[in-house]
Design a protein that fits this description.
Elements: E1 2-4, H1 7-16, E2 21-26, H2 32-44, E3 47-52, H3 72-81, E4 86-88, H4 92-95, H5 114-117, H6 121-136, E5 140-144, H7 148-160, E6 166-170, H8 190-211, H9 217-229, E7 234-243, E8 257-265, E9 268-279, E10 282-286
Parallel strand pairs: 1-4, 2-3, 3-4, 5-6
Antiparallel strand pairs: 7-8, 8-9, 9-10
This protein binds adenosine monophosphate.
Length: about 290
């Protein structure tokens, strides 16, 4: 596996590469969620590039940029074992040699759900993702459904800016207790962790309800709130049934719905979601 650190190096590598290229954008501190995206990338392309960059412009001034976990040695070993061809690890100065004035952003879709409490988050994500797309010219890019709003916004960006890139939304990888894997789970104490599982308990209860035929969003939201209310350490920020197209709340579920949750446990902010898929007559729930 090559470890490349500059734009010049990654561009030179890309212009020499033939066949299909997959890019997996990450902020590192790899867990099974990241590894599953790398496996998908491996299956879909001849070359796999993984970018590892803790992107400062997607963190708010009071967020966890400085304490965000970093472990390059561990990440290098995992990526190399998985057959990744290139690990692209630029510095902040390499990516942003001058203060950024140009952004990709979504004025309305980026200001709902997570955008309500993280106003500049998605424009930071959109900007770095466009930069990484331009540096690596990928054919295919897997993203995790765990960050549901993110992958939906990127799909929209690709469509609306006519980028010839296939975005693949991949299933959420969970720990044995159901908690969605996240680099931020490392912030949780054992007691926090017990509370954090309440998010999964809420989503699981919603799944049962939907599988039993419930379609009314209010009833589903109620059930989730009741379940999550049993975990006093869980500070729910939002718990909504939304459309994956408009990201707006819907009254009744359909095959384009997403149940989206953000909650705080202590100082750690966690997100999770559930996608309703299938066809009108045969709705299925992916958790
Ligand atoms: P991050 O390093 O947190 O920015 O995540 C990099 C990529 O991994 C994003 O596409 C995430 O959605 C994806 N990802 C993070 N956690 C998971 C998970 N538990 N399951 C699947 N994908 C994930």
């Amino acid at each position: 596996m090559d470890i490349l650190r500059t734009k010049k190096e990654i561009r030179a590598w890309r212009s020499a590469a033939t066949g299909r290229v997959a890019l997996v954008p990450t902020m590192g501190s790899f867990h099974e969620g990241h590894l599953s995206l790398m496996r998908t990338a491996r299956a879909l392309a001849d070359h796999v590039v993984v970018s590892l960059f803790v992107n400062p412009i997607q963190f708010g001034p009071t967020e966890d940029l400085s304490r965000y976990p970093r472990d390059l040695e561990h990440d290098e070993a995992l990526a190399s074992d998985l057959g990744v061809d290139v690990l692209f690890v630029p510095t902040v100065e390499e990516m942003y040699p001058q203060p950024q004035e140009t952004y990709a952003y979504w004025p309305s879709l980026g200001s709902v759900l997570c955008g309500r409490t993280r106003p500049d988050h998605f424009r930071g994500v959109g900007t770095v993702v466009i930069k990484l797309f331009n540096l690596t010219s990928p054919h295919v890019v897997p993203f995790g459904r765990k960050d549901g709003q993110q992958v939906l916004l990127i799909e929209r960006l690709v469509r609306e800016l006519d980028l010839d890139i296939e975005i693949v939304a991949c299933p959420t990888v969970r720990d044995v207790d159901g908690l969605a894997m996240s680099s931020r789970n490392g912030y949780l104490s054992p007691a926090d962790r017990v509370q954090a599982v309440g998010i999964y308990a809420g989503l699981s209860a919603a799944k049962v309800l939907i599988e039993n035929g419930e379609r009314r969003s209010a009833a589903i939201r109620n059930e989730m709130s009741t379940l999550m209310g049993k975990y006093p350490g869980l500070g729910v920020e939002y718990c909504d049934v939304v459309s994956r197209d408009s990201l707006k709340p819907v009254d009744a579920l359909d095959h384009r719905s997403m149940l989206a949750v953000a909650a705080r446990v202590g100082t750690t902010r966690l997100i999770d979601n559930l996608w309703v898929v299938g066809t009108e007559g045969d709705l299925r729930v992916e958790l």
